[in-house]
Amino acid sequence: MLVIVCYDVNTEDRAGRRRLRRVAKVCESTGQRVQKSVFECQVNLAQMEQLERRLLAEIDLDSDCLRLYRLADSKGCEVREHGRFRATDFEDPLVL
């Protein structure tokens, strides 16, 4: 399944800037960055639950925001991209 992770971390203090880096590292370890605070992750249900637990361990629920969108069938959803970045299609063959 395709999971979209979006977050907004309060970076007004040093602790917030550290949280932001840690949240980004968790997301980078699982998916690809498509915008500054938005990641696409191709995972199964167990991996999604683990990702959510890891992210919840990093954010401050009183000052940060975390959203995960689960799209059960990536073939059934439409993504329209505009601009410079082009995401990797995980369903297509990988050519090196």
From TrEMBL:
<comment type="subunit">
    <text>Homodimer, forms a heterotetramer with a Cas1 homodimer.</text>
</comment>
<dbReference type="InterPro" id="IPR019199">
    <property type="entry name" value="Virulence_VapD/CRISPR_Cas2"/>
</dbReference>
<keyword id="KW-0051">Antiviral defense</keyword>
<protein>
    <recommendedName>
        <fullName>CRISPR-associated endoribonuclease Cas2</fullName>
        <ecNumber>3.1.-.-</ecNumber>
    </recommendedName>
</protein>
<keyword id="KW-0479">Metal-binding</keyword>
<comment type="similarity">
    <text>Belongs to the CRISPR-associated endoribonuclease Cas2 protein family.</text>
</comment>
<keyword id="KW-0255">Endonuclease</keyword>
<dbReference type="InterPro" id="IPR021127">
    <property type="entry name" value="CRISPR_associated_Cas2"/>
</dbReference>
<keyword id="KW-0540">Nuclease</keyword>
<dbReference type="Pfam" id="PF09827">
    <property type="entry name" value="CRISPR_Cas2"/>
</dbReference>
<comment type="function">
    <text>CRISPR (clustered regularly interspaced short palindromic repeat), is an adaptive immune system that provides protection against mobile genetic elements (viruses, transposable elements and conjugative plasmids). CRISPR clusters contain sequences complementary to antecedent mobile elements and target invading nucleic acids. CRISPR clusters are transcribed and processed into CRISPR RNA (crRNA). Functions as a ssRNA-specific endoribonuclease. Involved in the integration of spacer DNA into the CRISPR cassette.</text>
</comment>
<feature type="binding site">
    <location>
        <position position="8"/>
    </location>
    <ligand>
        <name>Mg(2+)</name>
    </ligand>
</feature>
<keyword id="KW-0460">Magnesium</keyword>
<keyword id="KW-0378">Hydrolase</keyword>
